[in-house]
Design brief:
This protein has 130 residues and is mainly α. It is built from 4 helices and no strands. It has helices at 20-37, 53-64, 85-98, 116-129. It is globular and about 50 Å long. The two termini are 27 Å apart. 5% of the residues are buried. The mean pLDDT is 84.
Length: 130
């Protein structure tokens, strides 16, 4: 889900292949049409949501296609790939807000691995309430 290859970001992880564009092409060219064809009615809108790298992929996808409408400890890591994520997310939040795009930013307590399901659900709930 990364646009370019990166080495493992922590011990025991696997490297990222850099296949974001290939995955996005499969998602929009194959999977999304199959899903839409199985529905009784066309969707009013389509949203791509994700947690962690999948969340960053969702932001990346917004720049690459028109098909789709963090914890507070990550920024303290010494990992050079994770440390700037909070700052860069805040920059994107302000950028989108200045462009008139409805957006929200919520910094959760804890680290990356705490309550990922609840965090993802909260994001999807926010989208549905817009």
């Amino acid at each position: 889900m990364t646009p370019w290859p990166i080495p493992p970001i922590s011990k025991g992880d696997t490297p990222c292949s850099g296949g974001a564009d290939i995955y996005l092409k499969q998602l929009t060219g194959e999977l999304l049409p199959q899903i839409e064809a199985s529905l009784l009615f066309p969707p009013e809108y389509c949203v791509l949501a994700g947690y962690s790298l999948a969340g960053l992929f969702a932001v990346y996808a917004a720049y690459k296609t028109d098909s789709f409408s963090l914890g507070d400890k990550e920024s303290h890591t010494k990992n050079p790939y994770l440390a700037p994520v909070e700052e860069n997310t805040r920059l994107l939040f302000h950028y989108f807000s200045e462009k008139g795009i409805r957006t929200t930013f919520h910094l959760n307590k804890g680290n990356h691995y705490q309550n990922s399901t609840g965090r993802t659900a909260a994001g999807i709930k926010w989208i549905l309430q817009q």
